[in-house]
Amino acid sequence: MEFFNAIVALSNFVVIPALAYGSQLALGALGVTLIYGILRFSNFAHGDTMAFGTMVTILMTWWFQSIGIGLGPLPTALLAMPFGIVGCAAMVLLTDRTVYRFYRAQKVKPVILVIVSMGVMFVMNGLVRFIIGPGDQRFADGERFVITARDFKTMTGLDEGMAIKSTQGITVVTAVIVVGLLFWFLTYTRTGKSMRAYSDNEDLALLSGINPERVVLVTWLIVAALATVAGTLYGLDKSFKPFTYFQLLLPIFASAIVGGLGSPLGAIAGGFVIAFSEVTITYAWKKVLVYLLPESLEPSGLVQLLSTDYKFAVSFVILLIVLLFRPTGLFRGKSV
Amino acid sequence: MKKMMMMATAATALMAGSVSAEDVKIGVILGYTGPIESLTPHMAESAELAMSEINDSGAFMDGMTLVPERADSTCIDSSAATAAAERLITSEGIKGIMGADCSGVTGAILSNVAVSNGMVMISPSATSPGLTTAEDNGFFFRTAPSDARQGQVLADILKSRDISEVAVTYTNNDYGKGLSDSFVSSFEEAGGTVTLAAPHEDNKADYSAEVGALASAGGDVLVVLGYADSGGKGMIRASLDTGAFDTFMMGDGMYGDALMDEVGAEMPGSFGAVPWSSGQGAEAFAEITDAAGINGGSSFTRESYDAAALIALAMQSAGTVEPGEYKTHVMDVANEPGEKIYPGELGKALKILADGGEVNYEGATNVELIGPGEAAGTYREYEIKDADFETVQFR
């Protein structure tokens, strides 16, 4: 019994939240890594691209809600997400046509594209705030919980509760589906193969007749879809506020770099590494240890490695260590 | 060179002479730009309302008039605020400062300009506990209560509810840290235990790490000293979702309708405190602001009105507009004994003082200055029922 209590407490406060957060980071990092791999620059506008896609989704969700269309226990936002993806894709293609294409034709250095993406970031940031406002927006509906902490306690008779939010469930499931689709696309379709070829060696790919504009177009479409899905899942799980999405940029980049920029598999691993390290290293283990250890050995302190103040330091220390000892990231991406 | 100096002096004398000797300038130093720019216009208008009320009565210092001089404190930029105050004092010749607003710039103006120039400052909205012990030579007052007092009030509320073990989370800035420190020390003094006081950052992506640590530390309630539309709400949301805590005690930053709309229904029985004004003073203030077409319901408007009124009444009581002289009269007019004065009755107060009587200025916020000249403040203790704030009592 004691052992089960320990497991449940650990899952409730560490494993489940970190899994959901990790999935959101992984989806965001996938977008960053694809742009880095194929278009060869770090897209600082990614956080705000997520915000833009989510905003379109939210506006559609509100419209659906107002005319009474819903998905029952599932959030209406899932229904609105395809529209969000289309809106976001239109937006990124427009930016690509008006901004990035000009610089691509000049064959500018990646660092200039990074600065350009910062400009795009500010414009998108302003646009989102202008349209939907800088405040918090709520759009989640449907069932909030798969199982609540209280129900879990009465069901199992344990002292500890375990809550699983439906948004957490949806996040993990959607992330798995999206990642599966992406890998299938990259590995087995003609366009996917040409994208990988273009990423591996641009000149060789051009020589074999791959149309670069088409590769760029498909990449932006995929990135728009990933960004919208990640943003919407994040907004459903927590809340939507443009400034928070801008702040998400840091952990997303940390995930992509830890995993290895340009490596899709690395982006996913990186997302989970960052999420789990943020939660576990600052977790106070007292509760779990009290259940596991005999009474004489019970800790009197909190058994917390680092105070939660250092939560963000943790991900950056990991980032530093990875860059020092394995500059290409855990999964051999491109060196930064 | 000497000649030029002479000319400059003469010019200054001329310029000074062009201002009517009957005018008394009062600086209204607030952050007209910056993070609280939406609040400050209403605050300034309220302060100016008090001044025009005094001018209209014609009873101020045998017919002198108060002239407000606005200057921008920016709320966050200490050097800009100091320069603005310096300009008002040296070139405008103000006789008192209604301001500043945010705690940081208020402290900067106080130590850099006000004390060295001997200028009285009454702040309507600086709440940092640090200002209580600031070196002010008796020149600094505030009509907003210090957060040290709020910490005490929160500890008292827990005591009256027989809660002895709590976990604390605060927003990681001067406000949150100051309030948390004052609460923790008051609560521990009263015999309570704080299992963990952990900060949280506002606008962050994820709060599960913070909630996990707090849940492990345990406690009967979680004390949330943050902002209702930011990290504070995120912490409550995450605590409710994981079942870590279901009762919360909240500081003044958490008071907002947005919080109730979103999570109010899930946290019945949670409670907290917020500075509040009620009764005769607040009603009288609402009446005169409505009549003047000013938004008197905005934050710190009442405190601003009171700050401006206190400066004028202290001058009248001292019989002089010199800051060094009237500073000792601020406490006299604000506190007992004397006739109680409410908003709209400033003319009456001036006459009583002119006749050598005494007044007890209550104003819009039941002003009572304690310690080194700061408002004792009235707090409304509320409890959450049916997703709404319900008043328990006033403290």
Automatic annotation (TrEMBL), chain A:
Membrane topology: Multi-pass membrane protein
Listed PANTHER family: BRANCHED-CHAIN AMINO ACID TRANSPORT SYSTEM PERMEASE PROTEIN LIVH, HIGH-AFFINITY BRANCHED-CHAIN AMINO ACID TRANSPORT SYSTEM PERMEASE PROTEIN LIVH
Superkingdom of source: Bacteria
GO molecular function: L-isoleucine transmembrane transporter activity; L-leucine transmembrane transporter activity; L-phenylalanine transmembrane transporter activity; L-valine transmembrane transporter activity
One of the record's GO cellular component terms: plasma membrane
UniProt-recorded name of the protein: Branched-chain amino acid ABC transporter permease
Transmembrane regions: 6-39, 51-71, 77-99, 111-132, 168-186, 215-236, 248-276, 312-331
Family: Belongs to the binding-protein-dependent transport system permease family. LivHM subfamily.
Alphabetic keyword roster: Amino-acid transport, Cell inner membrane, Cell membrane, Membrane, Transmembrane, Transmembrane helix, Transport
InterPro entries: ABC_BtuC-like, ABC_transp_permease, BCAA_transport_permease
Gene Ontology process terms (BP): D-alanine transmembrane transport; L-alanine transport; L-isoleucine import across plasma membrane
Organism: Sediminimonas qiaohouensis
Subcellular location: Cell membrane
